[in-house]
UniProtKB/TrEMBL annotation:
The keyword NAD does not apply. Belongs to the RNase T2 family. PROSITE patterns: RNASE_T2_1, RNASE_T2_2. SUPFAM superfamilies: Ribonuclease Rh-like. InterPro entries: RNase_T2-like, RNase_T2-like_sf, RNase_T2_His_AS_1, RNase_T2_His_AS_2, RNase_T2_prok. This is Ribonuclease. The keyword Signal applies. Residues 1-23 form the signal peptide. Keywords: Signal. It holds the Pfam family Ribonuclease_T2.
Amino acid sequence: MSSMQLRTLTFAVSMIVAGAAVAQEAGGRTRFILAASWQPAFCQTNQKKAECASQTGERPDATNFSLHGLWPMRQDYCGVSAEQKAADKDGDWNKLPEVTLAAETKTALAKAMPGTQSGLERHEWVKHGTCTKMSADDYFGVGMHLVGALNASAVRDLFAANIGKPVKADAIKAAFDKSFGPGAGDRVKMSCRRAGNVRMISELTIGLSEAAGAASAKSAGLADLIQGAGKTSFGCDEGVVDAAGF
């Protein structure tokens, strides 16, 4: 091998190593999504749902994020019968099997996930939970732990302080970075929906690493799980933080 060839090979290897280092610094790969709803906005267009008809300004979901789900990437309905899958897709979730949970988990989930009043936990387990290796108690336990960490952060504080007002993407990303480390906001996508002429923030979907798919994630730091995920586009750039009530 000539000296020129050797220098070329050395340069190529160094570029590959540098590229890998940059990729590692930028984060890993998104394997799970934590979906956190802003329930008042969801309820504006789902007023007949039980959890929306019963919502009040004093209930936790009026000023905190609610658990929508914990979703494995590119997997759903694992080992689920065609009948259950059809019932789920029809939206008649109360026809799905009841999810067997410990009494403590069931009570906590009713608070963290108001949609349990409409069978949301049955849908989430059939479509997403079945694709994890966790028990139902662990699966929902992880989801509740992570949305609890979100509600203890600057992100929730930002939303609670701006109920009835518009909030921009940059402010939300900055709140994520403040609570979960630089770049955390680059691993979040925001969804908005219109109610009349108002564009409301309806949900945040947060990228997480593969470690979110184990029962041990019930004690994991949300920051570590976010930092281990890949980057995404933010989606909606601005929306109103809706207040409870119609």
